[in-house]
């Protein structure tokens, strides 16, 4: 039993109070069902207080989904029930209604007679960000969240510009095919050079496919046909960035004066990449707590930043690792024990700065080389030196495709192995 708030009794048909059987003698189950119903009512009443028609319709729909779940059923639209529900399921739903204990709205929900609210593509994207995947964004830094939204919003904006900001329920296969053809003109135009890669088109199509499925699953329609299903482009094998040769690193990049005019922090990052094989973003976002220069074995901890005021994810779970410091990297972090605050949360600026400087100062041996080539060189150098394959994967932050046992070797062993590839350098370059 629950009383409807006084100021909402004119708009909630169950006024002045709600009474509903939970149909169980199990106290724990009854509490779980009660909580679902309470959550549904709270969401509905909050939307009614806001007096926003679209949000109210969505809140009513979601409340209906929760009420059906509390009664032990899975919410399904009337069309879905008629198409694929078993006879036993339909009979059970009708019997629940016939006993007369449900409100008119709850009865409609049980048989899928509550209409799906009208929500546009752009509004669905807001719901996706704010509700559906909100937990996935919690540990991202502000820059990571902005980049994540930018990529996914691009797909929505492109679709809206081409087809219009349609209601989600009105998007057709023809709309999806039109969007596919829009990208086909960019990926494989007839008689002209492509302006975009297949991966760009696939990214937009994939993001719309995910948005469509996630939104309707969130709204309780798990078996709805996805109009963006199986629309994609064949991607050619990606070009692998070439590594720097040892001769080039020692004779050109580590040559005294080669990076003299670069700002100190950017130069420190570039030099650290040589003997860590880390991603530039990983080095840029290190904090004092992750740099253990005074430890028995000086090392870096590549790990997520859990500061609630300034969180940051790392690329994958396997990317979390400890890297012993050797050679020029040890020299760099002796000078920068608190990291590189100029580029913290600004990894894109760092990448642009390094690539531009290397290009303009002849530090790339070819047009195909980028700053990421340091990472490829690190892997090659470890392989040539005969380092254990699993140790190489650990130090690179790659996934090991077998159950993990042990700690991956002591830090002292890792350090001794890495010393095999340490390159000579003049400390004055730091």
Automatic annotation (TrEMBL):
PROSITE patterns: TYR_RECOMBINASE
Entries under Gene3D superfamilies matching the protein: Intergrase catalytic core (1.10.443.10)
Domain Tyr recombinase: 239-423
Gene Ontology BP annotations: DNA integration; DNA recombination
GO molecular-function terms, A-Z: DNA binding
Tree of life domain: Bacteria
Keywords from the UniProt entry: DNA integration, DNA recombination
InterPro entries hit by this protein: DNA_brk_join_enz, Integrase-like_cat_sf, Integrase_catalytic, Tyrosine_recombinase_XerCD
Protein name: Phage integrase family protein
């Amino acid at each position: 039993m629950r009383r409807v708030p006084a100021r909402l009794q004119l708009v909630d048909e169950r006024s002045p109070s709600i009474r509903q059987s939970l149909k169980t003698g199990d106290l724990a189950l009854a509490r779980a069902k009660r909580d679902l119903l309470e959550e549904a009512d709270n969401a509905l009443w909050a939307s009614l207080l806001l007096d926003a028609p679209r949000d109210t319709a969505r809140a009513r729909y979601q409340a209906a989904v929760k009420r059906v779940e509390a009664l032990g059923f899975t919410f399904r639209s009337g069309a879905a029930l008629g198409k694929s529900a078993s006879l036993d399921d339909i009979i059970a739903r009708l019997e629940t209604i016939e006993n007369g204990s449900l409100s008119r709205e709850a009865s409609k929900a049980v048989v899928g007679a509550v209409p799906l609210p009208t929500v546009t593509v752009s509004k669905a994207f807001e719901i996706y960000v704010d509700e559906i995947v909100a937990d996935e964004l919690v540990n991202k830094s502000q820059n990571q969240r902005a980049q994540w939204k930018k990529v996914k919003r691009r797909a929505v904006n492109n679709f809206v510009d081409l087809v219009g900001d349609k209601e989600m329920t009105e998007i057709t296969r023809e709309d999806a095919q039109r969007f596919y053809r829009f990208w086909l003109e960019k990926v494989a135009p007839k008689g002209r050079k492509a302006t975009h890669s297949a991966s760009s088109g696939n990214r937009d199509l994939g993001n719309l496919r995910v948005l469509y499925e996630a939104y309707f699953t969130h709204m309780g329609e798990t078996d709805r046909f996805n109009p963006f299903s199986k629309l994609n482009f064949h991607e050619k094998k990606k070009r692998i960035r070439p590594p720097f040769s040892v001769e080039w690193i020692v004779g050109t990049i580590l040559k005294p004066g080669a990076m003299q005019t670069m700002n100190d922090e950017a130069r420190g990052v570039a030099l650290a990449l040589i003997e860590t094989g880390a991603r530039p973003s990983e080095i840029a976002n290190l904090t004092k707590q992750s740099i253990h220069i005074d430890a028995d074995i000086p090392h870096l901890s590549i790990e997520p930043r859990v500061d609630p005021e300034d969180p940051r994810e790392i690329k994958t779970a396997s990317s979390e690792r400890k890297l012993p410091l050797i050679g020029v990297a040890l020299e760099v972090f002796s000078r920068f024990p608190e990291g590189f605050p100029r580029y913290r949360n600004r990894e894109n600026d760092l990448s642009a700065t390094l690539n531009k400087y290397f290009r303009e100062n002849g530090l790339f041996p070819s047009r195909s080389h980028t700053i990421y080539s340091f990472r490829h060189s690190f892997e090659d150098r470890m392989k040539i030196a005969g380092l254990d394959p699993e140790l190489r994967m650990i130090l690179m932050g790659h996934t090991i495709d077998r159950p993990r046992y042990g700690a991956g070797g002591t830090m002292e062993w890792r350090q001794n192995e890495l010393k095999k590839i340490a390159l000579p350098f003049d400390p004055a370059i730091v």
